[in-house]
Amino acid sequence: MVNVTVDKIGPCKHRLNIEVPVEDIKKEYESIVGEFVKHAEISGFRKGKVPRKMVESRFKDEIIEEMHKRLISSSYQESIKKHNLRPVHTPKIDNVKFDLNAPLTYTAELEVEPSIALKDYDGIKIKVKKVSVGDDEKDQYVESLRDAHATLENIEDRELLIGDYAIIDYKLQDEEGQEIEKGTSKLIFLDKNQGFLSGVIEKMEGMSIGDSRTMDMTLPDTYYKKEFAGKNVTIDMTLHEIKQKLLPEVDDNFARNLGKFDNINELMAEIEKVLLEQKKSQQRADGKQQISDYLIDKHSFDLPESVVANETDHVMREFAQSQQKTENIDAKKLQKEARQEAEKRVKVAYILADIAEKERIKVDKREIDVQIARMAASFNINAEHLKSQLIENGGIYGLQERILQDKVLDFLFDKAKVTEK
Question: Which CATH number does 151-246 carry?
Answer without folding.
Answer: 3.10.50.40
